[in-house]
Amino acid sequence: MRRFLSRITGPGAFRPLVLIALGAVYLNIGSGSLVLVTGSGRGCPVWPLCNGKATPPLDYHGLIEFSNRVLALGVIIVAILLAVAAWRAGMRRTHRWRFRAAVANGVGTFLQGPLGGITVLVDLHPLAVMSHFLLALIVMLIAIALALDEFRI
After folding, report:
1. pLDDT by 10s per residue, the chain, length 153
2. Which of 25, 31, 64, 65 is catalytic?
């Protein structure tokens, strides 16, 4: 396991992880939009479980909402791996803004989990929904800036 983690966060891993993180947050925003437009936000009315269980009920709204949560977990993992890869590549000394952006991406993505939970617990209050979406857009902007800089576009 240690060797695997070392390979996926090694110095050469930053570049591909930037693209993976960008694609993952894009997919997550798309799945969140699907939750919103289908009215599936109440498919799992409690958080982090779904109706008190680790799996959703086999209905349309529950599956859409829970799928968004599972995808979000993957996005959080990728964002944290990106921050670790930036640290392991020595960017905290050589490319400070990239390091800070990678850490901000990881922190912002991680905070999406509890903010999504609060959004569910306050019964999808519009301010909570918009705060959740705004943070997603900020994380997306950071990921875009990292990709543009990393690939010198």
Report:
1. 778 877 788 778 999 999 999 999 999 999 999 999 999 988 988 888 888 888 888 899 999 999 999 999 999 999 999 999 999 888 778 888 999 999 999 999 999 999 999 999 999 999 999 999 999 999 999 999 999 999 988
2. 65
6 exposure class (CB count in 10 Å sphere: 0-12, 13-18, 19+): exposed
The question of whether 150 is a catalytic residue gets the answer no
Residues 6+ apart with CB under 8 A from 42: 61, 65, 123, 124
pTM of the model: 0.90
